[in-house]
Amino acid sequence: MNPKTAPAKTVYDGRYLRMQVRGTWEYAERTHAGGLAAIIVAVTPDDKVVFVEQFRVPLQAPTIEMPAGLVGDIHAGESIEQSAIRELEEETGWTAERAELLMTGPTSSGMSNERVAFVRATGLRKVGPGGGDGSEDITVHEIPRSEAAAWLARKMGEGYELDAKLWAGLWMIDHNLDGTPRE
To answer: Where is the Nudix hydrolase domain (predicted)?
Structure first.
C-alpha cells in the first residue's frame, strides 16, 4: 500500500502526541498548534550562551539543549516569537526585548510531523531564577560564547546527551542564514 495515498489509522491519541500508521509507515504527530516547537538562540549581555540541562525521560539521560518549548501549548494563537520569549523566561529567567524567527524545519521527518523554529532572542534582561514550571527540573548554564563548543564537547564526554540542533544554534549566533557574518 502506498503511504502517500493510504488512509491514516490512529493507534494512540494522547494529550500532545498521536501515533499514526499509514500503509507500512508508523509515525508520531504533535497534536498542539500545528506541531511546532521553538528553539531559542540566546546570548546574554556579557556574551554568554544560554543552555539548559534537564533529564529527558525518552532517553533516560540528562541532556544539554538550548531553551525550547511548544508553540501555542499554553496560549492559543500565541506567535512563535511570543512563545519563544515566554519559554526563555520560564526556563532560564531571562527575557528578551526582541525575538526574530530565523527558520523553520522538521525535527525528525521520518518519525514525526513536528517542526522546529529557530528564534534568535536579543536584548536579554535577567528577570527571575528560571528552572522551568512546576513539572520541570531545569538547570541553567551560561557559558562564554568563545568556550561554548568546547564546553559542549566536555559535557558529551561526561555522558550528557546533546541535542544535535545545538550546533546549528551556535552557528546562528554569528551568521545569517545565507552564511554571511552577523553584525
So the answer is: 33-166
